[in-house]
């Protein structure tokens, strides 16, 4: 396999949003391919025409794009390849690895009822498996795989290890229905083969499918890909992830204000490990990611860990890139867009805003002093901080600030001097200053706010609060 370029794929069904588990599967495939100079392909498994919708496909593409997972080439539609799938089923017929089955639904149901009456589970054994083609009626038929009846099928899985399935438990599965539409099992194998997929990395709920799909590879004489079936994600209580655990869709996490880099880091770490590394960049993840590091036990969603990592990524993020992602967050949540003036101030204030903000809503709360305009709306604590004494101090400050050179050193000298003149520590003066500038008593540093909004606006806000 080492000389063959790595090709991975993500193949979701477009029946709803991009599930958080699907997002992680896509991420694992993307990391594995990108870290080896390979290709990451995207296929939409839209053969279920009743449940597949263009809206769901669009939601999946939006989710992958937000996560930063770029794919190579065009998105493949499985439905559009149905003629190719049928062609392979007929080729299997010609090879003798498949056969025409004329059994009706009633006959199959009667076979199963008889087996149940005997108290045994029996896989359906078609009477047409070894029938002489001369006896074939002129009637609708399905094409069934001629599965081995004895022995075992072995799946060499990179995560689950060696998995052995007894062939006696596998039926002659249908590959092509009587209306000439392919089954999921056939379509997946044909698509993976034709797309040159070398590594199938997917949820372990597909592990049983691998045995049946391997038979199709064998029937066509095709090379079997490397299998890697990854455990599913569970909720914090260890139970299968469901709505009661919170957000399930990738786009919901964007709307909650988690940065994509933090989300990638968290999902990479969810069920995979590289030593003790918790915080890492996408470049490091691409270098490090391998199949050996994936655990066999289901991973548990941990929102505290997610927030912690997201906070680290915001703090380490590039200011302009953070602003760009913040604006995308505002757009998806329907919040007003930033004005040109606000954009400039946000960029100037980003070094102090991104410190200790775990999500974009927290960052916006810290940026309230930038996003608000006079008259400043103050919360209850801010109103309390602006008592008569505080207002008097603010009033005496403004003439000194008019003559300041507006550097941090100059401002520090003026403010600490004002606090000393009033016989109070600077901490006592900081609360009314925050209340005047931000309308809050919790905000970024007073000096940071004054330097970002500038001399004229600072003085105007102090005068408004002192009035």
UniProtKB/TrEMBL annotation:
Q: What does the UniProt entry say about where the protein is found? A: Cytoplasm
Motif 'HIGH' region: chain residues: 12-22
**Would you indicate the residue range of the signal peptide?**
none
For this protein, the record's InterPro entries field holds:
aa-tRNA-synth_I_cd-bd (IPR045462), aa-tRNA-synth_I_codon-bd_sub2 (IPR020751), aa-tRNA-synth_I_CS (IPR001412), aa_tRNA-synth_I_cd-bd_sf (IPR008925), Glu-tRNA-ligase_bac/mito (IPR004527), Glu/Gln-tRNA-synth (IPR000924), Glu/Gln-tRNA-synth_Ib_cat-dom (IPR020058), GluQ/Sye (IPR049940)
Where mainly found? cytoplasm
Using the record's annotation, list all stretches that form the Glutamyl/glutaminyl-tRNA synthetase class Ib catalytic domain: 6-307
List, alphabetically, the NCBIfam families matched. gltX_bact
Name of this chain's protein:
Glutamate--tRNA ligase
């Amino acid at each position: 396999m080492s000389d063959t370029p790595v090709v991975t794929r993500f193949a979701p069904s477009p029946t709803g949003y991009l599930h958080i588990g699907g997002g992680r599967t896509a991420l694992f495939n993307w990391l594995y391919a990108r870290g080896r100079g390979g290709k990451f392909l995207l296929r939409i498994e839209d053969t279920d025409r009743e449940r597949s919708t263009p809206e769901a496909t669009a939601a999946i593409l939006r989710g992958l794009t937000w996560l930063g997972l770029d794919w190579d080439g065009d998105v493949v539609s499985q439905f559009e390849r149905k003629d190719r799938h049928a062609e392979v089923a007929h080729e299997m017929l010609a090879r003798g690895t498949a056969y025409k089955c004329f059994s009706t639904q009633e006959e199959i149901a009667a076979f199963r009822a008889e087996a149940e009456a005997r108290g045994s589970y029996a896989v359906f054994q078609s009477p047409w498996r070894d029938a002489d083609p001369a006896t074939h009626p002129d009637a609708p038929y399905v094409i069934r795989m001629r599965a081995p009846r004895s022995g075992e099928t072995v799946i060499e899985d990179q995560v689950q290890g060696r998995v052995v399935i007894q062939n006696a438990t596998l039926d002659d599965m249908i590959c092509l229905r009587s209306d000439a539409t392919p089954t999921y099992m056939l379509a997946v194998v044909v698509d993976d083969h034709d797309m040159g997929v070398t590594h199938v990395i997917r949820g372990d709920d597909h592990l049983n499918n691998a045995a049946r799909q391997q038979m199709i590879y064998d029937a066509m004489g095709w090379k079997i890909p490397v299998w890697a079936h990854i455990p599913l994600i569970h909720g914090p209580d260890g139970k299968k992830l469901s709505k009661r655990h919170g957000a399930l869709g990738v786009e919901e996490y964007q709307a909650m204000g988690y940065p994509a880099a933090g989300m990638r880091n968290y999902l990479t770490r969810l069920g995979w490990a590289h030593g003790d590394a918790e915080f890492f960049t996408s470049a490091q993840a691409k270098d490090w990611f391998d199949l050996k590091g994936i655990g066999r036990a289901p991973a548990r969603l941990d929102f505290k860990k997610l927030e912690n990592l997201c906070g680290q990524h915001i703090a380490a993020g590039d200011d302009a890139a953070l602003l760009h992602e913040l604006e995308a967050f505002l757009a998806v949540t329907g919040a007003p867009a930033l004005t040109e003036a606000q954009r400039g101030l946000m960029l100037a204030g980003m070094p102090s805003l991104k410190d200790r903000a775990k999500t974009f809503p927290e960052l916006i709360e810290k940026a309230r002093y930038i996003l608000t305009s006079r008259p400043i709306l103050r919360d209850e604590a801010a109103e309390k901080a602006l008592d008569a004494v505080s207002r008097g101090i603010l009033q005496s400050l403004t003439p000194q600030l008019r003559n300041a050179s507006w550097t941090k050193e100059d401002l520090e000298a003026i403010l600490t001097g004002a606090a000393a003149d009033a016989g109070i520590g600077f901490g006592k003066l900081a609360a009314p200053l925050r209340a005047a500038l931000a309308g809050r008593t919790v905000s970024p540093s007073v000096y940071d706010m004054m330097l970002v909004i500038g001399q004229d606006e600072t003085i105007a806000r102090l005068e408004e609060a002192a009035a």
